[in-house]
Design a protein that fits this description.
By secondary structure, this protein is of the alpha+beta class. Helices cover 24% and strands 47% of the residues. 7% of the residues are buried.
Length: 122
Amino acid sequence: MKKLFVILLALVAFSCNNGISESDIIGKYKVTMSVDVDPEDEEANMALAMFAQAEIKYEFQKNGKLHTSVTMGALGSEDSEGTWSLRNDSIYLDKESYFIEKAEDGFVLSSEEVKLAFNEIE
């Protein structure tokens, strides 16, 4: 039974396409992150509060390149480069996979741990 479930799940995953194309994604976005954390986990809540103060921007480029900028107020900013690609209903940021869906002014990426809202800025 478990094997049948895995096969069915794989078939559904490979046949899904949410209508998002690469040209829909290319652009610059401000990112808002939401994470479910245990209210008792002080360390996780402190890290989440710190990230809530950060300004996170992503730029998806035509050639599959990704530029990320994170500004942490007085702590300064950090830029990084990476890659992105679309496969079915998933987007890969470097090697991390996220489910992607359209939103009113951008799109939302989600995984088991995190939800990222991308709002177009330019």
